[in-house]
Every structure is written in structure tokens, then in C-alpha cells.
Amino acid sequence: MKHPRSIVSRFYLFNVYLLLLALIGLPALAQKVELGVGMGGFSYSGDIAPTLQLNNIKPAGSLFFRYNTLKGLSLRAELAGGLIGAKDATSDDPWQQQRNLEFKTRIMEGSLLAEYNFLDFVDKRFAINWTPYVFGGIGMLAFKPNIQTSDYKTSSLILPFGVGVKYQLKRPWGIGLEFGTRKTFTDYLDDLGGEPTTNNKIIQGDPATKDKYHYIRLSITYTFYRIVCP
């Protein structure tokens, strides 16, 4: 059986390979390929922060390329990284305040996504310069808690999904705003997962639920246009 870290590394290399293919094939894919950079924040949801809390947003960034078809569909490969964290002390729940745990975790992810554009954003004969969209896909996550109190796997499959809007400023430049959620298959992003390892119920998490995190970002993109000589 392949080591989980090896699988994650190969998934990241696959995303890098797709980015390189996009760069090599730009002349043939002109007007269909966008390269983009995103800046924003990650926010975690789990045992320490059961719901999305804006005060838990930590810095995050990403690099992606997008391939646009002419039928409302865009395909995207993306690499992202940043921090997540939360504190029981900021919760309104007296039980969490008594537990008083906190964590910070560095995460890296690679994902392959499909976007559905609601408006005709690509076909230049009829296109307008903005569109809302929804997206979904699959990815791999690697994470490193600042404190790891037990031996557990620090990688997971993720299922990213969300909504966004993109706008062409002045070709070849565009901007976008996106909010997405990453469903994970691990309960250890906060170092508080799995079956209880102590009789002290105060410091136990809920093994029945998995952690997740969210990504809100602003992005800027550059579209490669081919100049056709007469």
C-alpha cells in the first residue's frame, strides 16, 4: 500500500504538471486559458468552532489555472495554502470556555474543479463581462498542527464546493470573488479527533463529526489572447 504522504505528493505534482501543460500549450489554447492568483483566508469548523466564525479567519493564498469551454463550463486546477485555527476562549458556550483548548494548523491543498457559469462569459460573439458561477470537485489535503498529541494521518481527501462571481476588468485582466467549503474526511485538523483517549470528558471532541474548512478569496486573472495576423 502506498504511503499517504506519497499519494498527496503525487496529487500536488499532478496539479503542477497541469499548470505546466497550460503554459506550454498557451498558443493553441489562447482565449481559453486564464492564470490566476488568489488571496484571502481559511476558516475552520469543527470541535472548537462548530460553526463558521469570521473571527477565526486566517491568511491563505492560491495559484490556479482555468480552462474555459464555450458551453458554460470551466475547468480549474488549483494549489492553495494557509493557516487555520480557533480558541475555545472566544466561544459563547460555557462548556467550551471551561475546556479552554486552542490550535493552529498549517494546511496545503491541491484540487481539480469544474465551474458552471450562469451567463455567457466566454463566447466573444455574445458574451457579457461578468458571471456568477458554482463549482465543485475533488482534492487532497496535507496539514501540520502546531501541537500533535497523538499519532494520526495528516492528510485527507477533500471535496471542495462553493459559489463565486467573476468580472472582466479590461482584457486580458479579470477579478473574482469566491466562497467555498472543503469537506474533509479527517477529525484531526484541530488535534482533537478520534475515539476518546482520556476519561476527562472536558477535553474530548465529538468523534461522530469530521472537520471542515472554508476559503474566501479575491483573485486576479490574466487571459492569454492570440493575435491573429491578416
Structural notes for this entry:
Residues 25-29 have low confidence and may be disordered. The protein is mainly beta. Strand 2 (58-68) and strand 3 form a beta hairpin. An eight-stranded antiparallel beta barrel has the order 1-2-3-4-5-6-7-8. It has a single domain (4-223), classed as Porin, CATH 2.40.160.20. Helix content is 13%, strand content 48%.
Provide a concise account of the structure shown.
The protein has three helices and eight strands. It has helices at 4-24, 26-29, 94-99, and strands at 33-45, 58-68, 73-87, 102-117, 130-145, 155-170, 173-184, 212-223. It is mainly beta.
Named CATH topology: Porin
Please state the CA-atom Rg, rounded to the nearest Å: 20 Å
Question: What is the share of helical residues?
Answer: 10-25%
* Total of DSSP H or I helical runs spanning 4+ residues: 3
Shape: elongated
Q: In sequence order, what are the helices and strands, one letter per element?
A: HHEEEHEEEEE
Widest sheet: strand order? 1-2-3-4-5-6-7-8
Which consecutive residue ranges, at least 5 long each, have pLDDT under 50?
25-29
What count of structural domains?
1
CATH class division: Mainly Beta
Per CATH, the architecture is Beta Barrel
Describe the main β-sheet briefly.
8 strands, antiparallel, barrel
End-to-end separation: 57 Å
Strand segment count:
8
Strand content: over 45%
Mean pLDDT: 83
- What class, by secondary structure content? mainly beta
